[in-house]
């Protein structure tokens, strides 16, 4: 396996229970760190990867075999198509047919959808085996791989079935971003921007200072943004792993964002949908009288500089509202949104009146009658 080239940044994440602490490593050439994160007791490893990363999954499997592990692969559909119970059942079948015990492990190689389903498989097989995430997308590095949330989609919505299952470690190998299409890189950057608005204004300043440099995945700027994004998330989930309070703030932009993803049958990238969702949340806070005009416009400026969408089709509101009623933050008939009072000051806003939401939606709607 490759050895690190250059500095490796280690970001600790603290769990609530013994054995839930882990490290997120950020750097180049990190695959050689995988055996250390797997631990000494692991004998069998299932490498879960999407169809598009077949060669990468095979390389990881062969390298693990070279280190003495019994390694297997499970190839799953790409992106959100892989987050179905049938795919999880296929992985459980591979684990069972190869005699995986509670001391064995799963390794995810891919984007956020892969770490979500692989984590769910690890959380449920024998009521929990170790999992190490090797995210290969920016979104996976700064969002899905960190925090221990796992899940699959159902016909009723995204991530409605899942479990909290902290990984044994996360390898954010920036070399894997070299071949990532620019569109994938920039949509993943929406989650980094989110971290900037809810907790770390320096992220916004860095992007505003040189938005073109964000397009170079191997730049020092992207590395700093990845590290800052991971630190924000690590700090929040260390304080509230199971989303009993503070962790809800990570859902900034996600209430409408998830509804858009569902409405688009998951053909929109998660980051693109969250981008629209953040502008909606900002407009909602302005409607509530708590967020200044310049901060609302800053959302459009920063996200627009990355080529991310900030509007959505006006005639889709009834469908979006129905999906949002099933959001995990909803309590009874009361929709709840993460909003800002200012940069780095997030809070929950409960909105009992759908008319307020509809009026706010007009501010981000494409082609809305005026």
From TrEMBL:
Subcellular compartments: Cytoplasm
Record key words, sorted: Amino-acid biosynthesis, Aromatic amino acid biosynthesis, Cobalt, Cytoplasm, Lyase, Metal-binding, NAD, Nucleotide-binding, Zinc
Domain of life of the native organism: Bacteria
Residues annotated to bind Zn(2+): 191, 254, 270
A cellular component term, taken from the record's GO annotations: cytoplasm
Function: Catalyzes the conversion of 3-deoxy-D-arabino-heptulosonate 7-phosphate (DAHP) to dehydroquinate (DHQ).
Family, similarity comment: Belongs to the sugar phosphate cyclases superfamily. Dehydroquinate synthase family.
Matching NCBIfam families: aroB (TIGR01357)
Protein name per UniProt: 3-dehydroquinate synthase
Name of the gene: aroB
């Amino acid at each position: 396996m490759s050895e690190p080239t250059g500095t490796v940044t280690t970001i600790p994440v603290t769990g609530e229970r013994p054995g839930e602490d882990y490290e997120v490593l950020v750097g180049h050439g990190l695959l050689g760190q995988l055996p250390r994160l797997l631990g000494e007791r692991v004998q069998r490893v299932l490498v879960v990867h999407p169809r598009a990363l077949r060669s990468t999954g095979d390389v990881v499997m062969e390298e693990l075999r070279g280190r003495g592990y019994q390694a297997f692969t499970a190839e799953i559909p790409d992106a959100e198509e892989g987050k179905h119970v049938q795919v999880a059942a296929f992985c459980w079948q591979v684990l069972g047919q190869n005699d995986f015990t509670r001391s064995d492990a799963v390794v995810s190689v891919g984007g956020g959808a892969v770490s979500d389903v692989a984590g769910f498989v690890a959380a449920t097989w024998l009521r929990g085996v170790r999992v190490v995430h090797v995210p290969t997308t920016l979104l996976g590095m700064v969002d899905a791989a960190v925090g221990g949330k796992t899940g699959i989609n159902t016909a009723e919505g995204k991530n409605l079935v899942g479990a909290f299952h902290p990984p044994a470690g996360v390898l954010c190998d920036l070399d894997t971003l070299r071949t990532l299409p620019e569109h994938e890189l920039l949509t993943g950057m929406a989650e980094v921007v989110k971290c900037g608005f809810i907790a770390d204004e320096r992220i916004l300043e860095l992007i505003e200072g040189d938005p073109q440099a964000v397009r170079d995945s191997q730049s020092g700027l992207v590395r700093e943004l990845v590290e800052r994004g991971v630190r924000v998330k690590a700090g929040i989930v260390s304080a509230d792993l199971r989303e009993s309070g503070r962790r809800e703030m990570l859902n900034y932009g996600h209430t409408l964002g998830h509804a858009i993803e569902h409405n688009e049958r998951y053909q929109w990238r998660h980051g693109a949908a969250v981008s629209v969702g953040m502008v909606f949340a900002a407009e909602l806070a302005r409607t509530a009288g708590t967020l200044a005009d310049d901060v609302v416009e800053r959302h459009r400026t920063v996200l627009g500089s990355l080529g991310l969408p900030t509007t959505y089709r006006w005639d889709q509101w009834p469908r979006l509202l129905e999906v949002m009623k099933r959001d995990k933050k909803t309590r009874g008939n009361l929709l709840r949104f993460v909003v800002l009072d200012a940069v780095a000051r997030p809070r929950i806003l409960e909105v009992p009146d759908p008319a307020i939401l509809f009026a706010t939606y007009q501010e981000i709607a494409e082609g809305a009658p005026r």
